[in-house]
Amino acid sequence: MSLATAVSPDVAERSCLGLDIYVPGRWDAPDSGVQLRPVLAWIHGGGFLRGATSQPLYRTAGEVAAQTGCVVVCIQYRLGIFGFFAAEELRNEAIANGTGYGNYGLLDQIAAIEWIQSNCLAFGGDPERITLFGESAGAASIHYLLLYCPTLPIRRAILQSGTSLRRPNSCSNNHDLYAHLLTVAPHPEKPPLDRFRAMSAGDLLRSVHDYEPNQGGPLAALKWGPTVDKDVPNGLIRVNPMQALGVGVVNRRVDAIIVGDTEDEGRSFTAQESMAGQLTEGFRFGTGAAAEGAKRAGCRVYMYRFAGTIENPRFAGSGAFHGVDIPYTFLHLIHLTPSEQDLARDLVRRWGDFAARGVPGEAWEEWNVARRVWKFEPGRSRLVEAEEVASAAVHAGGAVLGALGALGAGGVRGFMQNGAAGAPIGRGGLLEAIRSRNGVGAGAGWARGGRVGGHWGMR
User: Fold this and answer.
1) Is residue 442 part of a domain?
2) Which of 39, 144, 275, 329 has the highest local Cβ count within 10 Å?
């Protein structure tokens, strides 16, 4: 459910949780002797505020399944205030109850992945070959899961234009919004948290929209996202993401990742050339740092730059803007030229090869070894030297990871400027901190599934 959409009375409060499953060819029973298929699980983007697997953009997921031979699963999770709201009173309650707070959308994703692993045999999927792929906030979500969920049952990951390296959400970010919601909440005689919970989903959506009338703008969604809940015993995000990069990937099941971005990331957010350049540099910094962190963790790493384009009526000549790769990823071919259609098929084929065997097709070398990047470009995709496609922001990832290794995670406290960083901890200390909640299994110690303590995730 998205805060950016109008409230529809025929949409139930719990309809934001679900899986869309696409099986290539015939639905084979697990005992039929047919070889199990790799699973590609998609987490959509939208700034943790917008997006839905029901959008027309994803209706061609069945074609992706047919072309790759993979089972394709699209995951819907809670968004905006339903998925990523962290207020001080919720924090205090979580501390008292020993539960996490502010990361309900991530918990939905964890529950979905665990369900896929437990049930994919029934539709021909291989529970040992689950690959997550996602774009923007979806890719960032995957990066969070790689950093903080040591035993989540995933084998590989594809991060398209997103990492966890953005300033985390916090209770202070939502203080004024929470105060505003209490001015319109019913039952003024009751305690604030009870009044807050008495609001219907529709009332919440309308109240948030009234408070933030510009929330439909391109940068508005950047305020939403996961919260560092290290101050509760069973919190999910135990340390700041910048600190977590000192380990890179805590899940030792993960053997390979693909990470990349588009050539003109910032242009879809602003028409101002200078700001577009700064946003693009920010995306690329995260890409390089995530790749370096995964390499340090022993994963095979493949990097790419996407240079395909599509007609953008809002910004003429916007190039390979943020999100332009999604129609290619889901084989929306109708508006593409023949060479662009070939590029889409090549990208999807490589994602399928990666899910099946951990190698994204021929000629694409590991970034760990060659420091070369695969450039997706209509008519001339190829492996290129990193310097040909990457600015200094990409290479900065290695420098930051080097600093983490030399100085300890506390050495970059000031970088994120959110006050969440604790005392300096080394690599072993970080792993211990992440695993210190009750049990090390994904989901251990926190609520899971559609009801995270309440009817829409706040109780």
Assistant:
1) no
2) 39
